[in-house]
Design a protein that fits this description.
By secondary structure, the chain is of the alpha+beta class. The protein has 3 domains: 1-41; 43-117, no CATH class; 168-352, Muramoyl-pentapeptide Carboxypeptidase, domain 2. It has helices spanning 3-42, 46-57, 80-90, 94-103, 106-114, 134-144, 148-156, 209-226, 239-253, 255-261, 290-299, 314-317, 331-340, 344-352; strands spanning 168-169, 184-185, 195-197, 206-208, 231-234, 275-279, 305-309, 322-328. It binds zinc ion.
Length: 354
């Protein structure tokens, strides 16, 4: 063999060795990554080790859970060891137990332990889920064939109860974001401050000043951009006026029918001073033309208003569609509600009450 060939052979050998080395290193790294990931998903982090430690030290150690303990993250609460065992005894998975321990205080954890096992996996991540309402959610969901989120929101709104039962008086009636519906009412003597006359009206109407000003902007834009006239027919209504109205409707149509389109006294948004009913004076037979309504639906939030009883919302609001009833919330807030695509009732429960 000549020296040149020998040299070349040596070079190839070196290269092969180098490649083998690289392969070995890569394999080792991959193994390490896999090992670390596996340990992590098994929960072998310091918090989980602490769970095992704490249970071993306590009187509550149960050897049948010895492999399960390490999947539970330690939380610094009284009776931690007892809670872990009780929740495991109830049949909750470690994933759910971790969520329970993270989310709830001891009163709620004990509530879970003291009650029948719940399907928490379907509910615990929903922001407005209330443990105390659990059986109502299950019943309402089965009856109405809706998803978990809708069941929770609607039950929180008391929609599983008869209208005008389980009612509650609103505590801060002058707050702009109050939810007024068939389960929440204003005090009889509540009159909002700073009510002023609305300029664009058929026969006189009043609103809280900030809403009345915003309404004039809406009217101006309806004219210039939408090409139609908009007037307020009625806005603020006192308790006693609403009482007269509602009583007249009941005498004419009966309670059941009247309830679909008129609020009982105390339950009307018109008493807040933030609601207004509108019409286009150039349209006859109805309050608004379809194109008027489309424009309002698309644009009213820019002036701080929302449609309170839009199409399809009857199962939630309990009222027939009212294309003419607007509620003032201020631009920022009205924008959020509009973007959510929810009725105000649902938005309120999801993002204000919770
Ligand atoms: Zn109205």
């Amino acid at each position: 063999m000549n020296p040149r060939r020998k040299k070349k052979k040596l070079k190839v050998k070196k290269l092969i060795l180098f490649i083998i080395n690289i392969i070995i290193v890569v394999i080792i790294i991959l193994f390490l990554i896999k090992f670390l990931l596996k340990n992590d998903s098994k929960g072998n982090n310091p918090n989980n080790d602490k769970t095992v430690e704490r249970l071993k030290e306590s009187d509550n150690y149960n050897s049948k859970y010895k492999n399960v303990y390490k999947e539970i993250e330690y939380t610094n609460i009284d009776n931690f060891e007892e809670y872990v065992n009780s929740l495991l005894d109830k049949g909750y998975s470690t994933e759910i137990i971790n969520k329970i321990l993270k989310k709830y205080d001891s009163t709620k954890i004990e509530y879970i332990i003291d009650n029948e096992k719940m399907e928490l996996e379907n509910y615990i991540d929903l922001r407005n889920f209330e443990l105390e309402n659990y059986s109502r959610y299950v019943e309402y969901k089965n009856k109405n064939n809706i998803d978990y989120q809708d069941a929770v929101t609607r039950v929180n709104l008391n929609l599983d109860y008869e209208q005008y039962t389980h009612t509650k008086e609103i505590e801060n009636p002058s707050d702009i974001d109050i939810l007024l519906n068939k389960y929440n009412y204003l005090p009889k003597d509540y009159v909002p401050d700073n009510i002023v006359d609305i300029k664009s009206t058929t026969m006189g109407a009043k609103m809280i000043k900030v809403a009345a000003d915003a309404f004039e902007e809406l009217v101006a834009a309806a004219k210039s951009e939408g090409g139609f006239s908009l007037l307020a027919t009625t806005a603020y209504r006192s308790y006693s006026f609403q009482n007269t109205l509602y009583t007249n409707y009941v005498n004419k149509d009966g309670v059941v029918n009247a309830d679909t389109y008129s609020a009982r006294p105390g339950f009307s948004e018109h008493q807040t001073g933030y609601a207004v009913d509108v019409r286009d004076p150039n349209v006859s037979g109805t309050r608004l033309s379809d194109s008027d309504y489309d424009w309002i639906k698309k644009n009213c939030y820019k002036f701080g208003f929302i449609l309170r009883y839009p199409k399809g919302s009857t199962p939630i609001t309990g009222y027939i569609e009212e294309s003419w009833h607007l509620r003032y919330l201020g631009v920022e807030f009205a924008t959020k509600v509009t973007e959510s695509g929810l009725t105000y009732d649902e938005y309120y429960d999801l993002y204000i009450a919770h």
